[in-house]
Amino acid sequence: MIRVIVADDEPLIRAGIKLILTSADDIEVVAEAANGREAVELARRHRADVALLDIRMPVMDGLTALGELGRAVPGTRALILTTFGERDNVLRALRQGGAGFLLKDSAPSELIGAVRAAAAGDAYLSPAATRHVVDSLAGGAAATRAEEARQRVAVLGDREREVLALLGEGLSNADAGRRLHMSEATVKTYVSRILAKLACDNRVQAALLARDAGLGS
């Protein structure tokens, strides 16, 4: 079972998320938190696999909790819940090592898929939220970023570029394997090699680099 902590200061939101997650046979919501401090304490107590963190919470916000989780419970993967009005916070979360992010109005199947991806060690990038972040990066430096990204990905082989493009679309290892007719283990090997070649700390950084380089849909 995937053990999950749900952290949001609105009880109705927590209840809705819990209802969706517990409809999956392989997910168990082991605790709920009304703020980031509670989320960190509960994740430590229950050794949760995944923590769903709202960004805006009292006492300790989701971004601060994300950093605390990384230090106190490194085995717990954090997914950030966001809205369209919080693009800067999303970028900060990715830089701090979040396992991904999704919008609060995401479909139930997307929420379940995100939790499964995070528990499996993958990063989850909501397609809508990914486009939102990419849009937020647009501006005067866009051309420079694109050129730098193209230069960085030039070190990759053709197959590695194909895998990177699918990371840019937010696909999991399993989904990428099906698309490319590879085993999940083979895709995982490619991803590790890509991260090393691009000097990326995680899949999220590689996915954003892929988007900057114009790879993927």
UniProtKB/TrEMBL annotation:
What are the entry keywords?
DNA-binding, Phosphoprotein, Transcription, Transcription regulation
Gene3D superfamilies per the UniProt record, alphabetical:
3.40.50.2300
UniProt keyword annotation of Phosphoprotein present: yes
InterPro entries, per database record: CheY-like_superfamily (IPR011006), NreC/VraR/RcsB-like_REC (IPR058245), Sig_transdc_resp-reg_C-effctor (IPR016032), Sig_transdc_resp-reg_receiver (IPR001789), Tscrpt_reg_LuxR_C (IPR000792), WalR-like (IPR039420)
Q: Which residues carry this modification: 4-aspartylphosphate?
A: D54
**Does the entry feature the keyword DNA-binding, yes or no?**
yes
* Stored Pfam families: GerE, Response_reg
Q: Which residues form the HTH luxR-type domain?
A: 149-214
Q: Which ranges carry the Response regulatory domain?
A: 3-119
List, alphabetically, the PANTHER family matched. Answer: TRANSCRIPTIONAL REGULATORY PROTEIN NARL-RELATED (PTHR43214:SF24), TWO-COMPONENT RESPONSE REGULATOR (PTHR43214)
According to UniProt, the name of this protein is: Response regulator transcription factor
Q: Which organism is it from?
A: Streptomyces griseocarneus
Q: What is the lineage of its organism?
A: Bacteria, Bacillati, Actinomycetota, Actinomycetes, Kitasatosporales
